[in-house]
Amino acid sequence: MTKPLDELLVHRKEFPAFVKRRVSDDGLAEDIVQTAYLRAFEHHDDFDPGESAVSWFYRLLRDAAIDNCRHRSVKDKALEALACEMEITPTREQELDICSCLQRVLNDPKPDYAESIRAIDLEDQPVQDFAARNGISASDASVRVHLARAALRNNLLRTCSSCAEKGCLNCTCKKSKQTQA
């Protein structure tokens, strides 16, 4: 009479294929088989000697595959919820309403600078696309946007002073211009 463990080892190569049909990933299938072997070892007292060890182990494999799918489903839902929770996408109006002086100051520097700031920073255009559209190299476009940002920063500091130093959040320029009008 063969021992149950010996019987399981004889069928060792069949188990990953059984699990793979349920999880469609070789590595994951092998992990589930290994986990099932551990469960079989831990719960060997639950094994009924009148039952086939292979049949009992296939039940363990099926349960392990189902558990894996449940855990993955719960994990995916949790990650999706977290992604939705962290996704704070400001509207176009909110992005452009940082400071009432921004539009005016943005128009002050050279037109090339204003165009690069609008395209790359406000419209999220990749530097490479901006460069190709304007017939310049990507490194020239990077230099241009760097210089444009520096000019914009200087203009905002000169125009808005303390408001700009705090990142133009809670813009006082807007409030003071509305009360003056």
Percent of residues in beta strands = under 5%
Main pleated sheet: none
Instruction: Kindly state the number of beta strands.
Output: 0
Tell me the number of helical segments per DSSP (H or I, 4 or more residues long): 11
What's the pLDDT, averaged over the residues?
76
Using only CA atoms, what is the Rg?
Answer: 32 Å
Q: Give the fraction of residues assigned to helices.
A: over 70%
| Unreliable residue runs | 90-97, 175-181
Could you state the oligomeric state of the chains shown?
single chain
What are the defining features of this structure?
rod-shaped, 181 residues
Characterization of this structure:
- With 181 residues, the chain is mainly alpha-helical.
- Helix content is 75%, strand content 0%.
- It is built from 11 helices and no strands.
- The chain has helices spanning 4-10, 14-23, 26-42, 53-86, 92-96, 102-107, 111-122, 127-134, 138-160, 162-165, 172-180.
- Helix 3 packs across helix 4.
- The longest helix is centred in the middle third of the chain and has 34 residues, at 53-86.
- It is rod-shaped, with a radius of gyration of 32 Å.
- The N and C termini lie far apart (99 Å).
- Residues 90-97 and 175-181 have low confidence and may be disordered.
